[in-house]
Amino acid sequence: MATKKKPKPKSFKPFIKAFWILFFGGVLLLALVFLLASWGVFGDMPTFERLENPQTNLATEIISSDGKTLGKFFLEDNRTDVPYSELPQNLVQALIATEDARFYDHSGVDARGTIRAVLFLGSRGGASTISQQLARQLFVGVRSKNVAEAVVQKVKEWVIATRLERNYTKEEIISMYLNIYDFGYNADGIRSAAKIYFGKEPKDLLTEESALLVGMLKNSSLYNPIRREELTLERRNTVLAQMEKYEYITEAERDSLVGLKMDINFNPENHREGLATYFRMYLQGWLKDWVSKNPKPAREGERDTWNIYLDGLKVYTTIDSRMQANAENAVQEHMKRLQAEFFVQNTPDRNPTTPFLDLSSDEIKGIMTRAMKSSPRWRTMSREGKSEDEIRDSFNKRTEMTVFDWNSPGMEKDTVMTPLDSIRYYKTFLRSAMMSMEPQTGHVKAWVGGINYRHFQYDAVIQGARQAGSTFKPFIYAAAIDQLRRSPCDTLPDTQYCIEANKYGNPEPWCPKNSDGKYSGQSYTLKRALANSVNTVTAQLIDEVGPRPVVSIVKNLGLTSEIPEVPSIALGTPDFNVYEMVGAYGAFANQGVYVKPVMVTRIEDKNGTVLYEYTPETKDVLSQDVAYAMVDLLKGVTEGGSGTRLRHTFAKENRVYKEIMTGYPYELTNPIAGKTGTTQNQSDGWFIGMVPNLVTGVWVGGEERATHFKTIYYGQGASMALPIWGLYMKQNYENPDLEVSLADFERPEELSIRVDCNKPVEEEEENQELEDDLEGLDF
Q1: Are 100 and 114 spatial neighbours (Cβ–Cβ below 8 Å)?
Q2: What confidence tens digit (pLDDT) does each residue in 529-562 have?
Q3: 0.85 surpassed by pTM
Q4: Within 13 Å and on the Cβ side, how many CA atoms surround 485?
Q5: Strand order across the 600-604 sheet
Q6: Which domains are assigned to the chain?
């Protein structure tokens, strides 16, 4: 019987061969895909230069003289890069534990993570490494919803990630990733996020704070600590669990941190809030002018001109953040009280506060019409092609709006009124401006352009010019001392004095009156006359020296306004701004040398290359003797004139003290030179005060000159402006680190002008001779 042949065992060679063909084919195909991607077949790939210098938009940072960030200029990206050395270790550990545990073991693509993601369809974690996420943020963009496009994007991420790993260290990749991420609320990058959510620098972040920010990296909109507190807290605790899993923290540490609540210190950053808003807006214009005159070095792939919103410049300013805060606090504290009294005085029974005094209905109508036509509403509707009648009608329709209010939370209240009524309402508010400067260097230490930048964006420090009143008188005295060798101890009578017609081009005789309309008939020393702002004495001095030398000195002191060469300038009729007046007074404190105020000392690019350094602009205007004599004259204002209230505690019962000055116990005992100023109808109140290393000017008034107090008691500079100076200086002296001088002004060694008016001339000369003799002796 024939035996059946056993079938030959099936050969696996074809399957093995097919497997290896498929495997190597897949590898070759994958390699080809990578190669094609690197060649740009699937879309542009970043060049080597772009990888070396990736174009990220960086905010320009404004830095104070004490190293604090005053604010930033940015469009959409409020980003300031932080080097790895300034990142806390807990932040780096939280990032690696949560986003890429094998970060230090791969070269941009994590094979294990990729295989895991493919096998489990992402249910056990994604495959993106930190390097890939950075590649997506910098060069690839948001993942497409189209599957084919998404696959191509993923391939490009892999290629770019490996290139990034070749070009940068692991530490640089971490810092780049944290610097690029958008945490919401203009918190672009870790520096802004730490400041906005916690009010601190990244290096100061606590472990739980770092965990919260790392948790937001998954989706900053979803894990939003302001809007979704519980969800964000849960995500933070997940990050802490990851840190414990990879042994960056212990189990006990995790348990203690998980139990903590989120301690959010929300500090939103924008252009209308924060410290030194008026100064920052001035600086914005200054920088735009600087950019127009300073071209950017040409580099491949970069913009050919500097952009203050995108290029990450660092602008080092002279502003001291502590003094700036003191200045803003002083303005706010006094103006709130002053405004309350203004409302009391200018509110007729059962009628709204009137912003205008002494004007006819036609004059008021003219003011309101000009205000309407210069408003954003008018400009917008005009661009839209609306007729004038339509635009005017819109100003009389009641609408919901948010307006400024001193007594409401956040100094804002919601109300319903017509746009025309809102214009009238805003004109009832008194405005203020203040600038503080170091006279020896010209460094501006504080700048407050108004009472609230969000609602009053006109910067009265440098945009506004108003009559200087009696703060101009020192320039008359300076000219008389400089040109005629007058002394603070010289005397002139307080009697009516007239300068005849046509003497200086006057069409009529000029016979100024004192502010109270009275003449004492006494002889006043120049020191006493200036202390009490005696107009008749000032008139005699300008007649002696002539208007032309006064104008010449004033121009040399940096006052650029047009000044007519007529006697009436002696009473401060020309308009000046606070910026100019503070600079001019600085020459008195700086031994006669005028130093132009400076706000920016240095500008650097994002790499620290210095682009600009300032050069001081100085001019010798007065001799040391004349400057010191002027300081001595101005000290008399606070020793026995209109500035003496700086020495008081204000326990008086007079209503002007009770309502406005209560709570202002300055009690300043150190030497202070200064001058108050009040203009016609109390429209403007001034005070410029000096100590040896700080000159500060304050102006207070309405937007319209017709907005003013009815009486001199409240409308004088000593009531409107001086309290701000006193509050500011009192706060400065409470911080010894500011080193604001308490000493007396330096007296020239051989003073040729008599200033000690209480001593006989002979005694003063003998004392000077004795001092000279003693100097020559060797003890």
Answers
A1: no
A2: 999 999 999 999 999 999 999 999 999 999 998 8
A3: no
A4: 3
A5: 69-73, 60-63, 314-317, 600-604, 610-613
A6: 79-268 (1.10.3810.10)
